[in-house]
Amino acid sequence: MFTYFLLLNSVYFFSQMHSPSSSPLDDVNLGPSANPHARPTDFDFLAVIGKGTFGKVLLAKLKADHKFYAVKVLQKKVILKKKEQKNIMAERNVLLKSLKHPFLVRLHYSFQTAEKLYFVLDYVNGGELFFHLQRERCFSEPRARFYAAEVASAIGYLHSLNIVYRDLKPENLLLDCQGHVVLTDFGLCKEGVEPEGTTSTFCGTPEYLAPEVLRKEPYDRTVDWWCLGAVLYEMIYSLPPFYSRDVGEMYDGILHKPLPLPPGKSDAVCSLLVGLLQKDQHRRLGAIADFLEIKNHTFFSPINWDDLYHKRITPPYNPNVKGPADTQHIDPEFTREMVPNSVSRTPEFNASTSSNNAFNGFSFVGSEDISDSSQT
């Protein structure tokens, strides 16, 4: 699954060792997520469901209770070589805080061997929103409203913790077995951004970059509301706003051109899109009262937010998952790959592995399309 591939580019690795003289491949301080009693042999590893620079994500069944998890297996030496410790630590911190929200993926615990880190997460198998959007081209307004509301709820929660997400896009949105949204991949999150605070790292995904990021200006949490607008626009119109195969032309549109709003959509959704995709971050919807402004917009008037949070609203689409181990929505490129029964025979991971997903909008920090360690 492409989202799990993206997740691999940003999972927690802490370079502080238990003693100053220890090797980088010795025990790593995993903090509150650590389970010192867990071992790879606790699991039956059933299928590859993602892969990336630092390793692979495996569908695994815990032998003790037969529950299924997505287990990310990462090579310590590759993370050190890529200098990803800082970004990966931020990912881990956000994962620990996400336990308290229904639309954020959950980290159950982590453990390690001499060479690898293991992160045990929810296996969310309803498919990426991107997958469903590609198949159907666009969604009805009620369906788009439901997904946008659940995403906004998750983003609002992160903002309440002074976390800016910075990489909202359909690939980072999974559907669970019932059809609820689960936000994943926290590798580009920035912690400690107060309501009036800003940050300045040039990062994100080209199609969804806010104008202030492109201008390399300090930006605030409203960057996430721009991205919500871009995702909603894509759900309604089938492509991100200002999309072009020519990246330079696309950036020019984001910076300078008026928002195209083809006819046939309601005044409410057009009003929300104009508010979220406001080029001036200080005039953007959410600039004053953050999530409260989004909640109170007329487009969301049919939503009971308390019912939404407690999952009392029936999702508009059921992915028809056949069971907790169902992989029908996982990219067959991954699931065809063999996983040995013995963990000791788990194949070594090639640091150059990448996904062949047709979508080319990778996350990046700095001027490249991969994360670096210069998060500021």
UniProtKB/TrEMBL annotation:
Kinase recorded as keyword: yes
Molecular function terms, GO-annotated: ATP binding; protein serine/threonine kinase activity
Pfam families: Pkinase, Pkinase_C
EC supergroup of this enzyme: transferase
Signal peptide: 1-17
Domain of life: Eukaryota
Keywords attached to this entry: ATP-binding, Kinase, Nucleotide-binding, Phosphoprotein, Serine/threonine-protein kinase, Signal, Transferase
Keyword match Plastid: no
Reaction equations catalysed: L-threonyl-[protein] + ATP = O-phospho-L-threonyl-[protein] + ADP + H(+); L-seryl-[protein] + ATP = O-phospho-L-seryl-[protein] + ADP + H(+)
Positions of the Protein kinase domain: 43-300
Residue intervals of the AGC-kinase C-terminal domain: 301-374
Residues noted as binding ATP in the record, renumbered to the chain: K81
Similarity field: Belongs to the protein kinase superfamily. AGC Ser/Thr protein kinase family.
Role description: Protein kinase that may play an important role in cellular stress response. May be involved in the regulation of processes such as cell survival, neuronal excitability and renal sodium excretion.
Stated name of the protein: Serine/threonine-protein kinase Sgk1
Species: Anabas testudineus
